[in-house]
UniProtKB/TrEMBL annotation:
Region named Disordered: 1-30
Organism (species): Rhodococcoides fascians
Lineage: Bacteria, Bacillati, Actinomycetota, Actinomycetes, Mycobacteriales
Keyword Membrane: yes
Name the record gives this protein: Transport permease protein
Topology versus the membrane: Multi-pass membrane protein
Length: 284
């Protein structure tokens, strides 16, 4: 035994000085109060918006798709379905609003997978911030993309002759579309966390997206479909959203369809937010 060490220890005990280990906290690492987590999520949202500013190519799809879809579908289907483009636009624009915003939500999962592959979230783990903040911020920042998509879709429609009966109702419809797109982004975020490659995330997401957007009343009335497909399209949540948007824009009674849409969005959030967070925490 070292005599000097023993003597020093005895002297400290005689003076009443003891060395104790710091208490071990039961609080999980990076656990934050709700207010702090919310503020950090908003900071990460701002970071996501700055990424869009410095890399505007991320906006390519939400700028081009509304133009291409509106012009192409109105030209192809307008004469066949209602006789001319002008009368088809009130049917088409709400459908394109929904299709473009829902398609834009797929990018959330792809970008999340790319950031995970680059180790971006590993660097965030070393910061004294809530673990949820980077994920919530990324999803919230993408809401800007949905807003741009809806504005361009309406703008192109108006340029082609679309005139909603209730402009205020159309504004509410756009807000509803953005809300649903944000809700769906949690599903694609889960896909992005679960799968290993960004290309796989995009492929699987589009495989899911295409049937639910096209087997609906977005582009054509469902009564023109075969009976079996009519049943599927009628039960499709996208059809309820499109009907809600059309009703709000036309100034007709859309309360029931809006209620169906909001209930569906609430169910998706209740299921996929905790599941996505749990998987995200486990993966990072």
């Amino acid at each position: 035994m070292n005599t000097t060490t023993s003597t020093d220890g005895l002297a400290r005990r005689e003076r009443g000085i003891t060395h104790t280990a710091p208490p071990v906290s039961d609080t999980p690492r990076n656990a934050q109060p709700f207010s702090a987590a919310l503020a950090q999520s908003m900071t990460m949202t701002f970071r996501g918006l700055l990424k869009i500013k410095h890399n505007p190519q991320q906006m390519f799809d939400v700028i081009v798709l509304p133009i291409v879809f509106t012009v192409m579908f109105s030209t192809i289907f307008g004469g066949a379905i209602v006789g001319d483009v002008d009368n088809y636009l009130p049917l088409l624009i709400p459908g394109v609003l929904v299709q473009v915003a829902v398609a834009a939500s797929v990018v959330t999962g792809v970008q999340l997978r790319e950031d995970l592959d680059k180790g971006v979230f590993d660097r965030f783990k070393s910061l004294p911030i809530a673990r949820i903040a980077p994920l919530a911020g990324a999803l919230s920042a993408n809401a800007f993309r949905y807003v741009v998509a809806t504005v361009i879709t309406v703008g192109v429609g108006v340029a082609m002759g679309y005139r909603p009966n209730d402009p205020a109702g159309l504004a509410l419809a756009c807000l509803l579309v953005v809300t649903v797109a944000f809700t769906l982004s949690w599903i694609f975020a889960l896909v992005g966390v679960l799968l290993d490659k960004a290309s796989t995330v995009q492929g699987v997401s589009m495989l899911v997206l295409m049937p639910i957007t096209f087997v609906s009343n977005a582009l054509v009335p469902i009564d023109t479909m075969p009976a079996w497909m009519r049943t599927i399209a009628g039960a499709n949540p996208v059809s309820h959203l499109v009907s809600a948007v059309r009703g709000l824009a036309d100034g007709t009674d859309a309360g029931l369809q809006v209620a169906y849409t909001l209930i569906g969005a609430a169910v998706v959030l209740a299921v996929f937010v905790p599941v996505t967070l749990r998987v995200y925490m486990a993966k990072t």
